[in-house]
Amino acid sequence: MGPSETNDHVLSALTNSFTDIDPEETGEWIESFDELVETHGTERAQFIVRSLMQRAGQKSITVPMVTTTDYVNTIPVDQEPEYPGDEQVERRYRAILRWNAAVMVQRAQKATISVGGHISSYAGMATLYEVGYNHFFRGRSHPGGGDQLFFQGHSSPGNYARAFLEGRLSEEQLDGFRQEKTKEGTHLPSYPHPRNLPDFWQFPTVSMGLGPLNAIHQASFNKYLHNRGIKDTSDQNVWAFLGDGEMDEPESRGALQLAANEKLDNLTFVVNCNLQRLDGPVRGNGKIVQELEAFFRGAGWNVIKVLWGREWDSLLEKDTSGELVRVMNETLDGDFQTYKAESGGFIREHFFGQTPETKELVADMTDEEIWAMKRGAHDYQKVYAAYKAAVDHKGQPTVILAQSVKGYGLGASFEARNATHQMKKLSMDDLKRFRDHLRIPISDEQLENDLYNPPYYHPGKDSEEYKYLMERRAELGGFIPGRKNIQPEIPLPSEKAYKGALKGTGKQMAATTMAFVRLLKDLMREKDFGHRIVPIIPDEARTFGMDSYFPTAKIYNPNGQNYLAVDRELMLAYKESPQGKIIHVGINEAGGVAAMTAVGSSYDTHGEPMIPVYIFYSMFGFQRTGDSFWAAADQLVRGFIIGGTAGRTTLTGEGLQHMDGHSPILAGTNPAVIHYDPAYGYEIAHIVKRGIEHMYGTGDEDHNVMYYLTVYNEPIQHPVQPENLDVDGVIGGIYRLSEAKNDGPRAQLLASGVAVPWALEAQQMLAEEWGVSADVWSVTSWTNLRRDGLDAERVLLKDPAATPRKPFIEAQLEGATGPIVAVSDYQTDLMDGVRQFVPNEFATLGADGFGFSDTRAGARRFYKIDSASIVVRTLQMLAKRGEVAADAPAQAFAKYDLNNINAGTSGNAGGDA
């Protein structure tokens, strides 16, 4: 396959498929253009080329769609700004940082510890960080408000090494790397984990793909705050440091169009293109830089390539034949990786030796000089030029594709090796070579004393390096990363905001989704509080009855609404505005959680507590985006998660992948998520009130939680709040909703959410038809009850002498005799979680198995969770105890025709919200 077939998508090969019928004339045009560049510079030449392309289009001459440029630096040498710092001083302390980062990991490999760590990632991107630290990354004290940085997770040793040089971390803390409990108090987590190091990290990034996605929504949220007039964020930038292998993740690329559509020129991606994944090359048979350039350019981003260091400039200038550029274009990534794992002589033979012209270019160079030619990501001048161009660029987000070598400077056994990501230990020879390469003043004797205890190095606070580093950070606004972890006090809603939800619906029917939406509307009207609520909705606002928000709250769009809306005459017309409150992410649950993460951490990133209310189809929350919720927990996000259209039998007609019978179980595995399954509007009001106080109040408690409510789309009548309501029970997870009015054998019916009406119906059937006295308990949170019970057991395990505490569910059920039947619209695993904490006989009825589309009554009869099934199961347990006739269960089974799906009566039709 010839070059014209493989390479005609890049500039230098655009004419490969054409025949030059007049080479002399072509030469004159090219000579004229060269004179233009030499006389007037590259910027003028760019304008002329664009003008010619524009004219060609007007003349109906096909202009190629070029999404990929040659494999050279984007910024011409004559457009590179002068480097503003003292590069030699910066390089000296960069060497110290690289040494201490590697030593920290090496010391963690002692035989008694051996906790792992990554050496090669930071070694390959230290320059990318340091140019930013010294000249671009602004701390929180900067007058503009400071930047937000998403650091590449595997390079965390470099961040720790810098904090050590700055005096923020001690040697003892560096020695606590990856030993978070055995050295608690002086520990450092493996990666950026704000939850585990809350005064240091801001953004968790090591779950690959989530960093780029969250960075985009962080930049979008910054503009949102500005456009709404809540905070001036016009001088704040978001930087995301990513790996080229990480860009394979769907989340890494899935929101690029949002950044382009919203013109997020406050956002810069820096992709560390070391051409390697964790196990081998990213595109051994291709070119990942070129692929990413085309992808980002096609998505509407500004693309800057930083591929070659300054040593290549003179060679490219002498490349009058274009052969060097052609070889660069055609060399595969797998070969580029191999070159840096070999030697200068190998590069001379296999790279430059491909053509006579390129071989001649390096004829006067030694092998050592060839080997010393850097790639762009290791050159201060080239990186600075790219960063400055990125922050100066307006109207588009920018991606910088910086070519590097993984394990740079670590020696032949590390550099560019496939296994380098997994290599945690330096041999004595590696250690000495690394020290020599970095010129660290540590003796052989100090190293040979203990391979796994090489000394850290600090030049001292009187050194030129330390003073320079600290001056740069002071001028740029303080240390990064850093986290204040302080939530400013804000006014909370008045009691008036909750009154509507406490009144019930009278004779009207409403789903719990609608009850929540009405409450949220009242909260949004609260003076000094409502402006902080940020509804976040995928493309389902009308399903949830939230289209009523459109006319007043409006949908956030930084570009406004420039079209004539089809429903403009309607009262609930679709309205977009730069001042809109609603973040409408489209059909994009991953984007919804990312938006929630940005909003819910605003109390820290901006000092402005904002309250995200992310509402979505229940099935597509914790099942689809569980990893994102886990990252949100790590980032100490606070806010409300609303799983609408919840339950396995409640969303009729939608089918298997929509029927959610397990999200509360998945959510229960996230320690930061507090799940509630309310049945009525007044329960929702008390839960939301408690959630706001818990997350945004000033009480002495952990505020870093998220409240997850499952709400349904089945219309029911909501009663007025009962007198003497056990509010503590509502918040704790269980309260007695309806006490039996008759005498007879005793039983207890525990139900949550949409199942509460079935339990109430079963209570009546048991009393009137079987003489059984059953109390009904509304279980607002099975998860709270289980966690509380486990906590009571754990306290005793830690301190056997402690006074035993009754689990909350046991205390609530004290005196409630008889067997328990627990039921919900979820799998039995949810209810079984509390079984060990109650002394009563216990049975669960749940919607186990796959969901399907059918009527609510039919589906509930199929799963045996409807009112008749509750009655039969209760009678079975009582018959076993001898408290009802032995044949009562069989009589009930026949009476209700329990195996007949069409005989079910629990549930009604209708109700989108």
Automatic annotation (TrEMBL):
Coiled coil residues, start to end: none
Top enzyme category: oxidoreductase
Annotated Pyruvate dehydrogenase E1 component middle domain residues: 489-719
Keywords on record: Oxidoreductase, Pyruvate, Thiamine pyrophosphate
Signal peptide positions (record): none
Matching InterPro entries: PDC_E1_N (IPR035807), PDH/Transketolase (IPR051157), PDH_E1 (IPR004660), PDH_E1_M (IPR041621), THDP-binding (IPR029061), Transketo_C/PFOR_II (IPR009014), Transketolase-like_C_2 (IPR055152), Transketolase_N (IPR005474)
Gene3D superfamilies: 3.40.50.920, 3.40.50.970
Cofactor: thiamine diphosphate
EC number(s) from the headed UniProt entry: 1.2.4.1
Catalytic activity: N(6)-[(R)-lipoyl]-L-lysyl-[protein] + pyruvate + H(+) = N(6)-[(R)-S(8)-acetyldihydrolipoyl]-L-lysyl-[protein] + CO2
Domain Transketolase N-terminal: 151-310
Ranges of residues in domain Transketolase-like C-terminal: 733-865
Role: Component of the pyruvate dehydrogenase (PDH) complex, that catalyzes the overall conversion of pyruvate to acetyl-CoA and CO(2).
NCBIfam families assigned to the protein according to its UniProt record, in alphabetical order: aceE (TIGR00759)
Name of protein: Pyruvate dehydrogenase E1 component
Organism: Rothia endophytica
